[in-house]
Write a structure and sequence with these properties.
- The protein has 169 residues and is an alpha+beta fold.
- It has 2 domains: 78 residues, no CATH class; 87 residues, no CATH class.
- The chain is built from 6 helices and 4 strands; from the N terminus they run H-E-E-H-E-E-H-H-H-H.
- The protein has a 4-stranded antiparallel sheet, with no helix packed on it.
- The longest helix is centred in the middle third of the chain and has 27 residues.
- It is extended, with a radius of gyration of 21 Å.
- The N and C termini lie far apart (52 Å).
- The relative contact order is 0.09.
């Protein structure tokens, strides 16, 4: 699927982009961005609208077929503050922090990827409880009140009564 935004003169041509090899796939990204004002777009603090085109080719032939997707972002970063490559790094770093931070911790501490709860509302409730547990752990850790060796160990010893006390404090 082609998008006028990423085929315009604003984004680099295919031959100017390098493929990156990582996680058993080839990827390349390009972006197009438009400067806006918060008043014009109706979003407080928004100075740019960014479109990132991500092309991905899996190296394992049994994997998913190649993909060509466009993600849209808004940012408070002014157009002159960063180059295209710097902005791409910020966007990629944002998603990397989510994947390697919250998701990794939820999976390692709570086995989230192995959970087979299929009902949407139940899965949502479990994700919320996992986030709550991690949040409580982080608050206690920052206050120097953790004796356990990591979130998983701490959560195993947590009771509902103790968790409620921590929420009130």
């Amino acid at each position: 699927m082609r998008n006028a935004c990423c085929n315009s003169r604003l984004s680099p041509p295919d031959e100017a982009l390098r493929w990156e090899k990582d996680h058993w796939r080839l990827e390349r990204r390009r972006l197009a961005r438009v400067a806006v004002t918060p008043e014009k777009i109706g979003l407080c603090g928004c100075w740019q609208v960014v479109a990132v085109r991500r092309e991905r080719v899996e190296l394992d032939p049994r994997a998913k077929p190649p993909s060509d997707e466009i993600g849209y972002y808004v940012t408070s970063i002014a157009e002159r503050e960063m180059t295209d490559n710097e902005l791409l790094d910020v966007i990629r770093g944002h998603w990397s922090a989510i994947e390697n931070g919250v998701h990794h911790r939820r999976d390692v501490s709570f086995g989230e990827d192995a959970c087979r709860v299929a009902q949407h509302s139940a899965a949502h409730a479990l994700a919320t409880l996992r986030n709550l547990a991690i949040g409580l752990y982080e608050i206690q850790y920052s206050r120097g009140r953790i004796e356990a060796n990591g979130c998983k160990s701490w959560c195993r010893r947590m009771t509902v009564a103790t968790a409620l006390k921590l929420l009130r404090s």
